[in-house]
Specification:
The chain is α+β, with helices and mostly antiparallel strands and 427 residues long. The protein folds into three domains: 98 residues, Beta Barrel (OB fold (Dihydrolipoamide Acetyltransferase, E2P)); 53 residues, Irregular (Dihydrolipoamide Transferase), CATH 4.10.320; 220 residues, Chloramphenicol Acetyltransferase, CATH 3.30.559. Helix content is 29%, strand content 24%. The protein has a six-stranded mixed sheet with strand order 9-18-17-16-12-15. It has a four-stranded antiparallel sheet with strand order 1-8-6-3, with no helix packed on it. A four-stranded antiparallel sheet has the order 5-4-2-7, with no helix packed on it. Helix 2 runs parallel beside helix 3, helix 6 packs across helix 7 and helix 6 crosses helix 8.
């Protein structure tokens, strides 16, 4: 008896998805709740688990197909029920492999075991940038990822890069055992063809959605950006003084993002319009602060939400952000993680950006852009001194936020960073 695998509910206002990758092939054994296919939605990648234990039967759709919620995308043939036997009946039409060649299902099982046995990567290692599908392809084809040039965002490896490297490896001629006798005639110099190649790669659903939303923000909002710079001396000194105690007590490093999140909360409470958005002909104000944090993922930028940031401690904000970053790399963020958000903080400084004009995340009306810290000469008490400075930018929708309000909000953030005591006494 075959059980149908249907597209699950994907979240509010999400009615369809794209088949991103089949994690199991027909004939492969599957366990209950084991992922068999990855779907790409407008916001995240969602893995669809098997509803029963058994063997994957028919794949009713192909990679790249668009499917709606509730659509049947595959079938799973039930395992033998007698005696709770976990063995799977082979398909009648499946060819019997030669004894010396391992079955495809056994190869898949070996790959799964190798993935499970891989050591946990340290931050900054290559493995932290490899998605599960890429790591699977690397092991399956025996490819050294350090020898393959990635074409994804920030030079990351994609599954297509690994498959291309595997194809090139198979096409390479085997080395000759005995060297041929030297040819006495002169060898002509190789001809340089000057060939230039192009490659067409279909945009993922997530990348298409990012493009539409950002272009929509430019078309609909009256975007304007105001700049300021802030002296990071006080924050750096505070981190240096308490980093060990903070890490020991809370199990997380004290970063800059929690300072800017709390400083933003002060500004948004004092200037409510920066924490509001337009809905039809009304302005929706919020008495809470849900901060969307821009995080770089293998497939593009995502913005999970730190909810009630104004009520959370520095430690809880740092823990939330660290968790979002780890799950973004693993591709395990959910729809609920990215719902809502009243204000966004984007830190381009981690990539070396000196200054930028960030684009708002609709329907929000403002976004704070952070940049790299660098030592610069500044005037203090009539003297020129060197201080660690950062440019900060606030992009806002001028339809709802006046210039005075935007400048005031950014000034409050600047003052809170330069004097962190303001965050403690709510000033």
């Amino acid at each position: 008896m075959a059980t149908e695998v249907k597209v699950p509910t994907l979240g509010e206002s999400v009615s369809e998805a794209t088949i991103g990758e089949w994690l199991k092939q027909p004939g492969d054994p599957v366990k209950v709740d084991e992922p068999i296919v990855s779907l790409e939605t407008d916001k995240v990648a969602v893995e669809v688990p098997s509803p029963v234990a058994g063997m994957l039967g028919e794949q009713k759709v192909k990679v790249g197909d668009t499917v709606e919620v509730g659509a049947v995308i595959a079938t799973v043939e039930d395992a033998i029920a007698a005696g709770e036997n976990t063995e799977v009946k082979p398909r009648e039409d499946a060819p019997t492999p030669a004894p010396a060649v391992p079955k495809e299902s056994e190869q898949a099982a070996d790959i799964d075991r190798e993935l499970d046995e891989l050591p946990k990567a340290e931050p900054g290692d290559l493995a932290t940038t490899l998605s599960p599908s890429v790591r699977r392809a690397v092991i399956e084809h025996g490819i050294d990822p350090t020898q393959v040039k990635g074409t994804g965002k920030d030079g990351r490896l994609t599954k297509e890069d690994v498959l291309a490297a595997a194809a090139a490896k198979k096409a390479a001629p085997a080395p000759s055992v005995s060297a041929p006798a030297p040819d006495p005639s002169p060898t002509p110099a190789p001809t340089v063809t000057g060939e230039r190649k192009t490659e067409r790669v279909k945009m993922t659903r997530l990348r298409q959605t990012i493009a539409k939303r950002l272009k929509g923000a430019q078309n609909d909002a009256a975007l304007l950006t105001t700049f300021n710079d802030c002296d990071m001396t006080a924050v750096i000194e505070a981190r240096e003084a308490y980093k060990d105690l903070f890490a020991k007590k809370h199990g997380i490093k004290l970063g800059f993002m929690s300072f800017f999140a709390k400083a933003s909360c002060l500004a948004l409470k004092d200037v409510p319009s920066v924490n509001a958005y337009i809905e039809g002909d009304e302005i929706v104000y919020h008495d809470f602060v849900d901060i969307s944090v821009a995080v770089s993922a293998p497939n593009g930028l995502v913005v999970p939400v730190v909810r009630d940031a104004d009520r959370k401690s520095f430690a809880q904000i740092e823990l939330d952000i660290a968790d979002f970053g780890a799950r973004a790399k693993e591709g395990t963020l959910t729809m609920d993680d990215m719902k809502g958000g009243t204000f966004t903080v984007s830190n381009g400084g981690v990539f070396g950006s000196l200054m930028s004009t960030p684009i708002i995340n609709p329907p929000q009306s403002a976004v704070l852009g952070l940049h790299r810290i660098e030592d610069r000469p500044v005037a203090r008490d009539g003297q020129v001194v060197i201080r660690p400075m950062m440019y900060i930018a606030l992009s806002y929708d001028h339809r709802i936020i006046d210039g005075r309000e935007a400048v005031t909000a950014l000034k409050i953030i600047k003052e809170a960073i330069e004097d962190p005591m303001r965050m403690l006494i709510d000033l």
